[in-house]
Amino acid sequence: MSPQNTASDSPLFIRGGRLFDPDLGLMRPVGAISIVGDRIVEVSEAGGVLSPPTGATVIEAKGKWIIPGLIDAHVHLVHVLRDLGITGDEVFPLFLTNGITTLRDVGDELTAQKLLLNHSETHPESSPRLFMSSPLIEGAHPYHPHVSESLTDVDQVPEFIRAMDRAGVQTIKLYTSVGRPVGRAVIREAHRRGKWVTAHLQWSYRAQDAIADGVDSLEHTESLLEFILPPGSPRWPELHQRPGIPADELAAMERQLLEIKADLDLDHPRVTALIESLVRHDVAVTPTLVVYRNWVLLRDLPEVQQHPDLQLLPERMREGWLKMVASAPLPAATRELRRRQYDKLGELTARLYRAGVTLMVGTDTPVPRCPPGLSMHQEFELLVEAGVPPAAVLTGATRNAAKALNQSDQLGSIAAGKLADLVILDADPLSDIRNTRKIHQVIRSGMVVDRDY
Q1: What b/e sequence results for 395-433 when a residue is b if at least 16 CB atoms lie within 10 Å of its CB, and e otherwise?
Q2: CATH ID of 69-404, from 1.10.240.10, 3.40.640.10, 3.90.1150.10, 3.20.20.140
Q3: What's the pLDDT band for 54 if we cut at 50, 70, 90?
């Protein structure tokens, strides 16, 4: 894969088209976008004299729609792929050619992330830009020990955050078994150093408490369900507790939880209170509906098993995922309950949007059946099906994600002075979100990407 031009080649001049403004949530006519090197130098209004500078490469965008480069705000580029014998750089082109010009890792082994960051920086023609995360911050019993840091004492926190700062990490990730005292200390220390703290919580740290403590975002709409269940609901045991529980008891508990979540009353005051708290404290949410449809809840559905996006992946990835799926079958008897729980996730996501919660867009790729790059477009479609308007979806995948990366002055919109990351589409994504798949050209750092890989 090679670029058609590089940042040191001639200026780039994109003439005509309609440009998506994530602040206004609409498309507006544009005269031209002038790019020099890796930067946008001018966005001229429609109707003026549009003469490209001498020597510029001209792209005619009349009748096209132009959106900022997309940001997948929830990926794991190390530990999931390692089980498949694949490294993240092998799938970088899948992201870039599908319009994802930036990735936000949210929990991985640090040394491997640094190697991927170096590859991204030295091969921008075939790689999205990458922002690193801390390992998963857990308690005494990590769920993913090989990509986790076990912090059980608040005195451990300052040096850990200093180490993350020295490593160039932007996102700090709290995970399921972390306790509140440590979580609160992490948020405090991370904010002192300008870091964004996100969390996937379940057992030891309530979402309501993390919100009050100042967490910046929460991952997965499904994780919110854990903290709005009716009083007396069973709690799914931690991984280290499960070997001591008979299999039939675990199966009965799993079914009971499915029933409770499938029938959850989202009009209940405890749900309203949680949503109001998210809005009041300006805490963002990354729903990741695609991972719950494609893997966690509905991986046995024919439409998931036979999704056409899967045919566009490397054979090694498809075969590895098939083995993972075969090793973790879902009981057919719970399929309808699982469908209903998935629908509840969509309903809750729409309520978050209508209430004014900031949404970001992420996929959890490369979890099985969440293909790199392509699952972003699936997530767009699922969010719109749930009731989030296309404009809000695109804003979540551009402006909102750029803010989480502390990159609002560099990414997230198409404006003079910002990095030249953008996607030219053949059809209007606001009229049909599926049109984000109709990519005419991708531009990353001022380079026109060769999409024939």
Answers
A1: bbbbbbbbbbbebeeebbbbeeebbbbbbbbeebbbeeb
A2: 3.20.20.140
A3: confident
